[in-house]
């Protein structure tokens, strides 16, 4: 049977208060005392009573994290940034995935509220049935990570993706490309909406004809990029450049181009988005918009923690700066 805090205090010779503070790593407890108490706690099988603690403080020191797509490594890197930072502040995360489903998102929020989490970090679907009102009704703080919802933009931690998507499109246009394919993400995702708007605006601002049949909405998965580009090639559509919503789509597109003997970047240039860890290790290293994903997770948790500790603090939108990394899938690439 595990020892209680009282039994641990008696065995160590220290007061309950000192033992408690040592286990919570308080700075006013001597490091040698901490080490002695922790060693004894391990030997006696002491387990911290989080239920009792939460009753005293009104907090569980857990946060809910709602990820949008378990198959996308982008979210894994963001979540790693969240978890590493949360651990530094003595918090744990409860993670759930929605697979871009509004129904699963609602269900996940209800479940996490039932777990009495102190706050929520979520990557939501751009819903059309009053999701903003639903979130506004929550009694706990929440931060939207990597996305935005209309009316709740101040709750977001995002990157400057509209600007970088336009920059990538302008790169193609200035290089003389007129047959540019945009492999777009799902229209229910705000980042896809922003990147498509940037793609369109770049054409409008340069008076470049926009070919609507070259804008293809996908679910954002690797196989989508492969199948859509393969289909375009079979239909004998001329392609000179591909701007993909994410690196997964770009990777699928590269496979389709390779299978059809189309040379990259000599015949077709390709730029992805997110700059996933594997992108620079492909047989042709992928040019991509590099988002600081772990930094995004870090910043999102810190923003949430600010509101957990001060519920009356105003929300402010935070925008991280990204950059385009030009590699071997574009004619211009960094050394």
Structure description:
The chain is an alpha/beta fold and 335 residues long. The chain has 3 domains: 5-48, no CATH class; 58-158 and 293-320, Rossmann fold, CATH 3.40.50; 161-291, Response regulator (Rossmann fold), CATH 3.40.50. It has helices at 5-12, 16-23, 31-44, 50-57, 73-88, 102-114, 131-136, 161-174, 190-205, 222-234, 247-259, 293-309; strands spanning 62-67, 92-97, 120-122, 142-145, 156-159, 180-184, 215-217, 241-244, 269-274, 287-290, 318-320, 323-325. Strands 2-1-3-4-5-11 form a 6-stranded parallel beta sheet, sandwiched between helices. It has a 6-stranded mixed beta sheet with strand order 7-6-8-9-10-12, with helices on both faces. Helix 8 (161-174) packs parallel to helix 9 (190-205) and helix 10 (222-234) runs parallel beside helix 11. The protein is elongated. The N and C termini lie far apart (62 Å). The model has no long low-confidence stretch (mean pLDDT 91).
Q: Order of strands in the sheet with the most strands?
A: 2-1-3-4-5-11
Distance between the termini: 62 Å
- The total number of structural domains is 3
- Write the H/E string, N to C: HHHHEHEHEHEEHEHEHEHEEHEE
Share of β-strand residues:
15-25%
- State the helical fraction: 40-55%
Using only CA atoms, what is the Rg? Answer: 25 Å
Number of helices: 12
Low-confidence stretches: none
Mean of residue pLDDT values: 91
What shape does the CA trace take? elongated
The CATH homologous superfamily of the largest domain is called: Response regulator
Summing up helix and strand content along with how strands pair, one would put the structural category as: alpha/beta
Major sheet summary line = 6 strands, parallel
> In CATH's first tier, which class of the largest domain applies?
Alpha Beta
Structure summary, number of beta strands: 12
């Amino acid at each position: 049977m595990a020892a209680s805090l009282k039994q641990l205090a008696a065995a160590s010779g220290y007061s309950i208060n000192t033992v408690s503070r040592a286990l919570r790593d308080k700075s006013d407890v001597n490091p040698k005392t901490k080490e002695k108490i922790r060693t004894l706690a391990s030997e006696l099988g002491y387990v911290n009573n989080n239920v009792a603690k939460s009753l005293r403080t009104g907090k569980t020191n857990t946060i809910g994290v709602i990820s949008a797509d378990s198959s996308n490594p982008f979210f894994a890197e963001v979540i790693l940034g969240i978890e590493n930072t949360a651990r530094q502040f003595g918090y744990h995360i409860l993670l759930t995935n929605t697979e871009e489903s509004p129904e699963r998102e609602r269900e996940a929020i209800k479940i996490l509220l039932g777990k009495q989490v102190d706050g929520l970090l979520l990557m939501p679907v751009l819903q059309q049935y009053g999701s903003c009102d639903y979130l506004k009704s929550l009694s706990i703080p929440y931060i939207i990570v990597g996305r935005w919802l209309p009316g709740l933009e101040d709750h977001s931690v995002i990157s400057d993706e509209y600007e970088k998507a336009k920059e990538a499109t302008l790169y193609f246009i200035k290089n003389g490309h007129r047959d540019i394919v945009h492999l777009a993400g799902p229209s229910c995702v705000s980042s896809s909406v922003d990147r498509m708007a940037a793609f369109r605006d770049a054409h409008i601002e340069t008076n470049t004809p926009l070919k609507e049949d070259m804008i293809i909405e996908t679910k954002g998965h690797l196989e989508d990029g492969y199948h859509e580009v393969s289909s375009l090639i079979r239909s004998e559509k001329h392609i000179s450049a591909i701007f993909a919503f994410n690196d997964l789509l770009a990777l699928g597109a590269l496979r389709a181009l390779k299978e059809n003997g189309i040379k990259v970047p000599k015949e077709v240039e390709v730029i992805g988005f997110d700059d996933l860890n594997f992108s620079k290790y492909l047989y042709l290293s992928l040019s991509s918009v590099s988002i600081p994903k772990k930094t995004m997770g870090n910043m999102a948790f810190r923003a949430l923690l600010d509101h957990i500790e001060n519920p009356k603090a105003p929300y402010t939108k935070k925008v991280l700066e990204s950059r385009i990394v030009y590699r071997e899938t574009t004619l211009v690439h960094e050394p």
